[in-house]
Automatic annotation (TrEMBL), chains A, B:
One of its GO terms (cellular component) is cytoplasm. InterPro entries: DNA_clamp_sf, DNA_polIII_beta, DNA_polIII_beta_C, DNA_polIII_beta_cen, DNA_polIII_beta_N. Residues 7-131 form the DNA polymerase III beta sliding clamp N-terminal domain. Keywords: Cytoplasm, DNA replication, DNA-binding, DNA-directed DNA polymerase, Nucleotidyltransferase, Transferase. Belongs to the beta sliding clamp family. Pfam families: DNA_pol3_beta, DNA_pol3_beta_2, DNA_pol3_beta_3. The keyword Cytoplasm applies. Confers DNA tethering and processivity to DNA polymerases and other proteins. Acts as a clamp, forming a ring around DNA (a reaction catalyzed by the clamp-loading complex) which diffuses in an ATP-independent manner freely and bidirectionally along dsDNA. Initially characterized for its ability to contact the catalytic subunit of DNA polymerase III (Pol III), a complex, multichain enzyme responsible for most of the replicative synthesis in bacteria; Pol III exhibits 3'-5' exonuclease proofreading activity. Residues 261-383 form the DNA polymerase III beta sliding clamp C-terminal domain. GO terms for molecular function: 3'-5' exonuclease activity; DNA binding; DNA-directed DNA polymerase activity. This is Beta sliding clamp. Forms a ring-shaped head-to-tail homodimer around DNA.
Length: 385, 385
């Protein structure tokens, strides 16, 4: 029959691939074909694709890998399978290998052991083509998977969640002199992270702004190894190439604001403090305040090396916490800030001690590790004194 | 100051006690005092109580247990602490011991390490007294904790969730000749579980109906040991006494229907089947149907020892699954039922094989373990053939 195609695929490989691809599929899409996942079976193997038109994810399950036969090709072809059911069905099938066959154009027969599913599929010709990205060596840079994942974790939380300035819902990527720099801000706080990366040519770009949601989905796919990931950026798209996985995201339109002038270059007070102790103290102070609108905590030098962290919620009560600091330079501190911003910033810094640089009760302050300055968190204080 | 009281309590003991007591506290209560947890410190130790007036839970933290000093009494007294914050505060306090002090009548000071919380409490005199239950030996029976927990798990899921017949939202307990019997039904299915229990006298009762929600909270507190639990029932209340924990629930008003006549005493077909294989097969068959209103699967003898489990969802597709059975007696089976009821019933039977007794396509059928008949699940089929 015309259009018939068939193949066998190893269950665990398919479950793994579907879990990746489903991160790009939205149940809220207005484009019916995008509620499906495209299966394309050919001589390379089985290629499955999911997309919500902002993010597209494509996974290849090769015919053979490391001597293991993952896919057995019978007749090549393509079909779009309903995303809502396919992962659960595959997970619950009894056998190790699963047979797919397409009949009567779009009816998919899925067999394994003594089970047989018949699903109504969609025409793969209606599935949108992924944007083509010129994949030439001079446009590529590479970064270890675990480093990219860490850089996302250390910045992405600071993007704006309000749509009034859409450009701030993304993370700015700059590349210059082999230094990749991520910047995120919601205009109340700022997170910056830098790292050295490799490119064959002296590749550089500015104003590449990637939606926060894309990065959050990407970081779920990135593994915690140092395996290099290839990245290619063009005017509208970014492509991240992992082992057998392609991740494609659109970029945000518009010009990202210049944030360099916000970062103070001198300070009035510099303190050094244990990260975990400060984190726990802010957590306690925010327990009563977190239901309030601003979740404000006060941070006050009460003795040279003693800080009081406090908050007050008139109806509930108040909390004060005393905290030893390791070192202080400059004038005593008395400042108020949003506890959530401080918690986010401290959780992003994987360092036993942090230094905090204050430039006055109403000026932004900066939190950094003390070992290196490749990560910087900035918070705008709140007026309460 | 009048009414001042103070004590120290071990953090882990208090966290544990609060986690139990909070199961009885509802944030939706219309009685403000019940948004709090009562702390009562005296010579026995610290007694904490939570209640939503349907369920009350009381935990004693003794002054000393197994040579460990859990509570240090300074001045006795009582206070009601806001439930919304207290557990999180205690969990996040830095020290091993926590100091409580009440000043100015209802201000609670909580100190640990360098942290100090001040919370606005409530007057403990406004907290309702728990109903008194006559705790005489002749009204008590005992049951191992793990057995009671299992009996709840095997019946409670079958209670009705609709309020139109309130009595069916509870589980019926009967005790006669040292046999405790639980019955639950939502009028589409029925779960019955029996066990032998101990009582000093030949205690018996009928028509004791305990709200399903009470049992669900109780089973979270029951531990998985054979430690005996004491149970006392009166006209309106049931009291379950565990080690240092009292659980009190109101009973449902009304007469529970007589379900004994629904259970067929003969069958037209009896099959024996592996529980896990049947469960997995029904799970697959219900994957496509579960979004539909009825989640119907068909169960048909296609050969003597071969069953086809199938379901059809016109828009999505269909599924058929073939299943070997171990034994069949009587005429071939052809029946349809709600997959969820079957899954619930099979998950409640901890037995490698089950026997199912059918009495016709439109009559209730019965699922039991084959080793014993102390558990019985009954399902009303659906007309589709």
């Amino acid at each position: 029959m015309e259009g018939n195609h068939a193949f066998f695929v190893h269950k665990n490989q398919l479950v793994n691939a579907l879990q990746h691809v489903q991160k790009a599929v939205s149940s809220k899409t207005t484009i019916p074909i995008l509620t499906g996942i495209k299966f394309d079976i050919g001589t390379k193997g089985l290629i499955i694709t999911g997309s919500d038109s902002d993010i597209s994810i494509q996974v290849l399950i090769p015919l053979v890998e490391n001597g293991e036969e993952w896919v057995q090709l019978i007749i090549p072809g393509k079909i779009v399978v309903p995303a809502k059911y396919i992962l659960e069905i595959v997970k619950k099938l009894p056998g190790e290998m699963i047979e797919f066959e397409v009949i009567d154009h779009f009816t998919i027969i899925i067999k394994s052991g003594s089970s047989e599913f018949r699903l109504n599929g969609f025409d793969a010709d209606e599935y949108p083509n992924l944007p083509q990205i010129i994949d030439e060596e001079e446009h590529v840079f590479t970064i270890p998977s675990d480093l990219l994942k860490m850089m996302i974790r250390q910045t992405q939380f600071a993007v704006s969640t309000i749509e009034s300035r859409p450009i701030l819902t993304g993370v700015l990527w700059n590349l210059e002199n082999q230094v990749l720099k991520f910047t995120a801000t919601d205009s109340h706080r700022l997170a910056v992270r830098e790292a050295t990366v490799e490119s064959l040519t002296n590749l550089s770009f500015q104003n590449v702004v990637i939606p926060g949601r894309s990065l959050s989905e990407l970081s779920k796919i990135l593994d915690d190894t140092q395996t290099p990931v290839e990245i290619i950026v063009n005017e509208n798209q970014i492509l991240i190439k992992m082992n057998h996985v392609l991740f494609l995201s659109r970029l945000l339109d518009g010009t990202y604001p210049d944030t360099s002038r916000i970062i103070p270059d001198k300070y009035k007070t510099k303190i050094i403090i244990q990260t975990k102790k400060l984190l726990e103290s802010i957590e306690r102070a925010s327990l009563l305040a977190r239901d309030g609108k601003n979740n404000i905590v006060k941070f006050t030098n009460i003795e040279n090396l003693l800080i009081e962290v406090s908050s007050n919620s008139p109806e509930v009560g108040n909390v004060t916490d005393q905290l030893q600091i390791k070192n202080i330079e400059g004038e005593p501190v008395k400042i108020s800030f949003n506890a959530k911003y401080m918690l986010d910033a401290l959780r992003a810094i994987d360092s036993e001690e942090v230094q905090i640089e204050f430039t006055g009760a109403l000026s932004p302050f900066v939190i950094k590790p003390i070992e290196h300055h490749r990560i910087l968190q900035l918070i705008l204080p709140v007026r309460t004194y």
